[in-house]
């Protein structure tokens, strides 16, 4: 947080980074245009130099590490991603700071786990503690920090992990309050109250609208990612220039609409305070979705949570302006809709209704409107989770072939290589050489580097009790038989992994 503010102040010259877009309006046009492009160029240099795929790491990689890597997050690419996100957010990239925070804390936890030679359970617990402390410190939200770590990163609520994660979240919040004071992220001007219980159906409708907006935001980012990749290939654009081009597009958009610059706290606060009219809320929400898609599709760095808060607050304000105008006699404040919309869109993006509901309360200090927020959040999450793979992060992983959204039964098979389960051809339980050769001729074989995720469908198709394990070569003799994979051995390994996962989740 401090690093972003210091660098942002140095680049833009503002003495209050939380009012960045108002200050940007006073800057020369060429500086507004060029600065994000320069930041993007530096990001491109960092990522192409220190990552194998020129891609920023974020919460998705932390979730993957929790599920499949015993809580270990890669360090080299992680450090480059943190630096890239710092530069992106400081130079005007339209994203959020929670993604880098989650990845940075996860990377620290992985380093500690390696130093302690921790097992998988302990590694995941340390990962949850680190993420909880980071989120709590970043947003001054200890309750949400603890639940975010369990709901989003660990993806289960185990009793044995709750105490250390809660203590870590409290510690992170204490450090934050000692450094920045005991203040909420957004200050509301008025107390939001529900007009009457008859108003609750409006929040059900707001939840549906927010769920669709959340899906639109997520799919826009993925569409921008695919379009940018296709355009990069068509133009033979070096990976180092991709973030720079995205930064230039952001700068051009910011010339007319500086509200899209940076995290967007000023615009979010204006929405929660009711300082925007209907058409402004709609236009700013649409432009923010476009800006976030350009930033993340261009691989500039940063997270999606803060942009989701801004888009949600604008969506809720627009909805509230219409609702209170049509039914003024039974409506509360339109800012209540902004607050509920902020939580509903963010919850749909994160796939985390519990922690998002709490973080909205802790960010605003408004605990009196829980009924409206809970209704909107629950409806939004129920809808959006059916239109994507549970959440933005899990959909990211699904697009890379990592199937965490379906649960342990889907991803555990990918954790075991055939080489760790196979038996040698001369093992007493191995089938005869003739049977193995017939299996090879029928294409019922796998390579030692394959995983059980590839092997199990072959067992299903053949209805056999083994697969040949071969090394493919160019020789005239065909594939070289290295061993066999018995169906019973594959099932035994899979069942043990499922049992261990269930035991951890219910401990």
TrEMBL record:
Main localization of the protein described in the UniProt heading: membrane
Keywords: CBS domain, Chloride, Chloride channel, Ion channel, Ion transport, Membrane, Transmembrane, Transmembrane helix, Transport
Protein's UniProt keywords contain ATP-binding: no
Domain of life of the organism encoding this protein: Bacteria
Segments traversing the membrane: 29-47, 126-149, 200-224, 244-265, 277-298, 304-324, 336-361
SUPFAM superfamilies per record: Clc chloride channel (SSF81340)
Topology class, membrane: Multi-pass membrane protein
Record localization: Membrane
GO molecular function: chloride channel activity
Coiled-coil regions, chain positions: none
Gene Ontology CC terms, in alphabetical order: chloride channel complex
Transmembrane as UniProt keyword: yes
Pfam families: Voltage_CLC (PF00654)
Domain CBS span(s) in chain numbering: 436-501
Record protein name field: H(+)/Cl(-) exchange transporter ClcA
Organism of provenance: Jannaschia seosinensis
Gene name linked to the record: clcA
């Amino acid at each position: 947080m401090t690093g972003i503010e210091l660098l942002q102040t140095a680049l833009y010259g503002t003495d209050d980074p939380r009012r960045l877009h108002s200050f940007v309006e006073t800057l020369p046009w060429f500086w507004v245009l060029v600065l994000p492009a320069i930041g993007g160029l530096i990001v491109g240099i960092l990522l192409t130099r220190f990552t194998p795929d020129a891609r920023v790491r974020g919460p998705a990689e932390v979730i993957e590490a929790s599920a499949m890597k015993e809580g270990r997050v890669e360090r080299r690419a992680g450090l480059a991603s943190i630096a890239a996100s710092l530069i992106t957010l400081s130079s005007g990239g339209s994203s959020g700071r929670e993604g880098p925070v989650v990845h940075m804390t996860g990377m620290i936890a992985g380093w500690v786990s390696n130093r302690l030679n921790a097992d998988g359970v302990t590694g995941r617990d340390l990962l949850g503690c680190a993420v909880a402390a980071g989120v709590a410190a970043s947003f001054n939200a200890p309750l949400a920090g603890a639940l975010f770590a369990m709901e989003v990163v660990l993806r289960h609520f185990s009793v044995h992990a709750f105490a250390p994660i809660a203590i870590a979240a409290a510690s992170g919040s204490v450090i934050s309050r000692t450094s920045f004071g005991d203040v909420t992220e957004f200050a509301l001007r008025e107390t939001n109250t529900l007009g009457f219980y008859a108003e609750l159906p409006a929040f059900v409708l707001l939840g549906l609208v927010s769920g669709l907006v959340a899906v639109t935001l997520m799919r826009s980012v993925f569409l921008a990612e695919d379009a940018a990749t296709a355009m990069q290939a068509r133009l033979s654009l070096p990976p180092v220039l991709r973030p720079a081009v995205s930064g230039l597009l952001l700068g051009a958009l910011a010339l007319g609409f500086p509200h899209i610059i940076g995290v967007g706290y000023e615009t979010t606060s204006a929405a929660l305070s009711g300082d925007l009219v209907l058409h402004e809320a709609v236009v700013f929400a649409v432009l923010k979705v476009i800006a976030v898609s350009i930033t993340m599709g261009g691989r500039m760095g940063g997270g999606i949570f803060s942009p989701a808060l801004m888009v949600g607050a604008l969506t809720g304000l627009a909805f509230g302006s219409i609702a209170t105008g049509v039914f003024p006699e039974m409506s509360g404040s339109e800012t209540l809709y902004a607050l509920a919309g902020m939580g509903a869109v963010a919850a749909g993006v994160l796939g985390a209704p519990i922690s998002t509901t709490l973080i909205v309360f802790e960010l605003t200090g408004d605990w009196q409107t829980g009924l409206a927020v809970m209704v909107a959040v629950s409806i939004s999450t129920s809808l959006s989770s059916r239109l994507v793979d549970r959440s933005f992060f899990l959909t990211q992983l699904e697009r890379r072939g990592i199937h965490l959204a379906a649960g342990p039964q889907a991803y555990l098979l990918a954790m075991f290589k055939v080489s760790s389960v196979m038996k040698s051809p001369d093992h007493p339980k191995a089938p005869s050489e003739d049977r193995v050769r017939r299996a090879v001729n029928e294409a019922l074989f796998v390579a030692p580097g394959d995983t059980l995720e590839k092997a199990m469908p072959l067992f299903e198709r053949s209805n056999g009790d083994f697969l040949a394990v071969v090394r493919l070569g160019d020789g005239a003799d065909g594939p070289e038989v290295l061993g066999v994979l018995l169906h019973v051995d594959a099932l035994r390994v899979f069942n043990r992994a499922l049992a261990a996962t269930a035991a951890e989740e219910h401990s």
